[in-house]
Structure formats: structure tokens, C-alpha cells
Amino acid sequence: MKRALFGNRLLPWLLLAPQLAVTAIFFLWPAAQAIRQSFLREDAFGLSTSFVGLANYAALWGSAEYLNAVRVTAIFAVATTLLSLGVALVLALAVDRLVRAGKVYTTLLVWPYAVAPAVAGILWWFIFNPTVGLLPYVLDRVGYDWNHLMRPRDAMILVVLASAWSRISYCFLFFVAGLQSIPQSLHEAAAIDGAGPVKRFFTITLPLLSPTTFFLLVVNIVYAMFETFGVIDATTEGGPAQSTNIMVYKVWFDGFIGQNLGSSAAQSVILMLIVIALTVIQFRWIEKRVAY
């Protein structure tokens, strides 16, 4: 591996300057502002500010509405991640068996990843709309009265499907790359030894895909915790009865609609700490079981 050598020590920093500036302006500065604001109480117009210490955090842990948002977020993140990884792996296995149509099939499956979360939410909202949607009509024919506007279970199913839909394409790409990197000779040797397709999958394919699966597990959890605001806002707006009010949506609602800036900032700090803690746990303990 060749090592890049710079005659001027300032040049590497100049090359890094644009990325460092973007990180500082759009991540470090807002994070610092949120941490500072979480210790304050402000009026809606920002004319009066008082230091309240940990009062905003204490109020959150005593709020049944906030604890419900934490529970809903956990259910939503796990369901979205498992659905995305499961469906993507099945599709990747199907593509891995194709020879001629593999590239076309792969290209078609990648398209949903280009759709913005808010647009994906609107698409699924129309599909499952109790009045004009196609799927509620089909479900009604088989005896199920779908109504995500009234039933919390239906609403959760809708937001999970809408959120996982675009992530399936992202996970699919990585799984296909991982499958193609597995030597075919391993499968042939196992087949000669009498191992069937199911046994070959669990003893060869799945263990060798563990690095890819681990990476996708981390990024999908982060996605479900942070980047699904558009889906929730376009489909259910946190309802019915707060059944889909995940933490990131509650941060926005309390801050921009309720104008409770201190509480909203405290919620954003807690959400950031939860994601950091989950990432550390995954890299510290789960990664040890990954076979590189």
C-alpha cells in the first residue's frame, strides 16, 4: 500500500477543510446549541431565558407521553430494521441465483432508495388510505377492515412498511456484494459433502455475511431513530393516540408546534445519547461475534 506524502504540511488540512467546515457547521455547532438549550427555559419568542439545570430532563422521565414515545421508537426501530434486512436478504439471494437478468433485476430494485422519506410516506398513505386506497379494498374483501386512522396496530404496520420500503434497496445492494464475494467453491464442497441448500445457507452463507449484516444493522437502527421523521409526518403525524409518535417526531412537535424549546432540546440530546450508546454496544459486544 502506497502512502501519500505531502511536501507542505498545510496542504492536507486545506484538503480536509471543506469536510471539517461542514461537520462543524451542520453537526458540532447545532449539537452544542442543543446541549446548551436543554438546560434553559425559554418563551416561545426567545425574549426571556432562564437557567433551570436538569429540570427539563427530570420532567421528561416523569412524563408518560415521553416514555410512550421511547417505547414506540424501540418497537418501530426493531420492526423496521428486521423487515429491511430480512426482505433485502431474500431478494439478494434470488438475484445471486440469476445469471442473465441479474443486472436488470438489481437496477429495478435499487430505484426505491432514490425516493425521499416524505414521498415514500405519501405513496404508502395513498395505497393504504381507507377511502381511496387499493389495499384496504382488497383486505376488506378477505374480511379485514383496515383503518390506520383509528387503529394503532394498523398505523404502526403502515409506518414500518413505508420506512422499510426504501431501506430494502440499500440493504439489498450490500447483501448482493457480500454474496458475490463468497467463493463458489465453498458451496460446491459443502454440496459434495451432502449439505442441502438450507444447511449451506446457515453454515456458509450467513456466517460469511456477518460483517455486511453487522454494518447494515448499525446504519438501519440509526436510520429508524433519526431519518424517519418524513415518513411519520406524511402518514400518521404520530397518531392515532400517540401510537406512532416516535422520539424524533416528538422532538420536532414539542419544539416547533408546542414551542417548548427547552424540553425539545433535552429530548434531542437524549436521542443522540441513545443512538451513540447503541452504536458503542454494537461495536463493542456484537462485533465480537462477527467473522471477518
From TrEMBL:
Q: Report whether Transport shows up as a keyword of the record.
A: yes
Q: Where is the ABC transmembrane type-1 domain?
A: 70-282
Q: Which GO terms describe its biological process?
A: transmembrane transport
Q: Give the keywords, sorted.
A: Cell inner membrane, Cell membrane, Membrane, Transmembrane, Transmembrane helix, Transport
Positions of transmembrane segments:
12-32, 44-62, 74-95, 107-127, 155-180, 201-226, 265-286
Keyword RNA-binding among UniProt keywords: no
Assembly and oligomerization:
The complex is composed of two ATP-binding proteins (UgpC), two transmembrane proteins (UgpA and UgpE) and a solute-binding protein (UgpB).
* Protein's name in the database: sn-glycerol-3-phosphate transport system permease protein UgpA
